[in-house]
Design goal:
Keywords: Ribonucleoprotein, Ribosomal protein, RNA-binding, rRNA-binding. GO terms for molecular function: rRNA binding; structural constituent of ribosome. By secondary structure, this protein is of the alpha+beta class. It has one domain: RRM (RNA recognition motif) domain (Alpha-Beta Plaits, 2-Layer Sandwich). The radius of gyration is 16 Å and the shape is elongated.
């Protein structure tokens, strides 16, 4: 099970990073907080002060086609917001 799937790089997540030293990741929906914390600390070598998780519901989407209106949902996912110790940071692009 790959616990960390990818970092979330939205405007809202960037504002959290600049304001409160918090970083956002998309994680496996089966992972718990202890597994997520261990994976982030191992991958980036940082100390985590707090970890919040949430399940984000998928958006309802619809489009018009020749056959009529097609509606569905984008998949839901689990998101983790990590607060680091002061002075520490995560460089998302170091592991590429």
């Amino acid at each position: 099970m790959e616990i960390l799937q990818k970092p979330i790089l939205t405007e809202k997540a960037s504002a959290l990073t600049e304001k409160a030293n918090r970083f956002t990741f998309r994680v496996d929906h089966r992972a718990n907080k202890l597994q997520i914390k261990a994976a982030i600390e191992k991958m980036y070598g940082v100390n985590i002060v707090a970890l919040n998780t949430m399940v984000v519901d998928g958006k309802a989407k619809s489009r018009n086609t020749k056959g009529g209106l097609v509606s569905g949902r984008s998949p839901k996912y689990k998101k983790a917001i990590v607060t680091l110790k002061d002075g520490e940071t995560i460089d998302y692009y170091a592991n590429i």
